[in-house]
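Let us work through a complete example step by step.
Step 1: write down the sequence.
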Amino acid sequence: MPETVFFGVVTFLIVLGPLIILHELGHLWTARRFGVKTLEFGFGYPPRAGGIWSGNTPILIDDQTVFEVDRRNIDRKLVTISTALDEYDRTVALVVRERMKGDDGEASRGVSIITGRIKSVESDRLLIADMLWSFNWLPLGGFVRMVGEESTNVRGSLGSKPRWQRIVVMAAGAAVNAIIPFILLPAVLMVPSDKSVGDVTIVTVFPDSPADLAGIKPGDKIVKVDGREIENIPELQQAVTVKLGAESTWEIESGIPNLFARPAEPEYQYSGDTEKVVIIPRWQPPSRDVVLETSDIETEIPLSRARVFDGSVGINTVLTVVDEPTDTLYQISERDASKLDPPAVLGDRLTVVATASEPGKHISLLDARAHDNGLGLKTSLQEGATGVQITTANSQIITKGMNPIKAFPLGWRQSMDILVLTRNAITSTLIGSSNPQFEGPSTVGPVGIGQLTGEIAVADAGIDAKVITLITLAATLSLSLAILNILPIPALDGGRIFFVLVEIVRSGKKISPEREGMVHFVGFALLIGLIAVISIQDVTRILRGESFF
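Step 2: predict the structure and record it as tokens.
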């Protein structure tokens, strides 16, 4: 646990930190391109540990300029300068004083406050580095600070720029996050790495399921789905999930039963000929109660039939011998346990199996039901989106890397898949989908992401596999950040863009800065509250010992 927490924190910072920094660099680059005055770019979040000043901003001085520091010894000093524009639209210093803690550059009507380091002093001007690249103690992501978003009458402010430029600056961060997967995923595909491959074959088909209606039968081998090769089960799961509710074209090879198969030989033979079938994966696959005898064929499935789809159904319960059972599904009384052959004693744990091969550790299903008829039964059996049970035949591990010609189209397709999967996950939450593909935490916060990265870091896998997994996770998170940030939520970039769009609809009439600021403040408070709630859920899940794997 401590190891997972440590590596979780480290990998969380490594994975998520750069994504946030690149996001903010997108804002910075576009702001500078449009002439917006940037005051600070921070690596991490305050409190500030230090920083480097850059820039070559000339500021005119004259006999009227007030110096509160020694002009003869002003070189390299950190100063705060109140400025104004003269009749020639030049920046002129009004007051120059030594910078004090808490001073920040900003703008107001008629006067600009510039904070920075003096680079040189000439007879009629100061040359000042007024852009701070700060390094902060909280090492998560970064931020960019620019002259007022709502200040329309201050030169160099974001608010003074045309509306389309303001929208571009605000959307630039999300755009960078959206582009990152289209670079990372092709790069991952080009790196030679171990990959599990094999023949993905159908084991069973649920009656009246989409696969059954399409004519798919046990033994069929899935070659391609919508033109993409299927080499393992996760690839099939992703291909199915992105097409929920839509037609999906499968290329299959029909398996012919090998009637004369010897032990360890394949049960099916394949001709190499493929055919195409159309399947519509469903959002709401049915769930059926597992019972000894079926009374309602619409909602129930007999134990014998359930075991065709899941051989462990009904035989995977562990009974603990206790004095007086409070939960008979997982407990057996000492009195009942004493009647077994051999008898079990208080504290023993008995695994319910079809046939007891280790008396004293196992209890037969028949004996278990003698004391409780419902023991050993799963309550339900969940069908999947297509209604098939699958396995991988001829499985092997190969080292595989793609050339750029194949890697980039496939990587871009995977990036688009992430967008669709994100949309489908949101839709699934809204409609309450029963699709097993969406089982697990529907939302995770920073704590949950840290848990996930930590589990990847300590997983029993090679360093190359871990790096590739973390890079793939970074690509997914980056696209998720892009989607979240561009939504019209107050305090986020999408919320600020929304106010600009409202301004356009109102024929240029702006919402007052005070009102807009209040909306963003409330939105920010609600966002922090939501993150806190999700984080509590993440911590609770960790304390229960639940894992992502």
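Step 3: interpret the result. Residues 287-382 form one domain.
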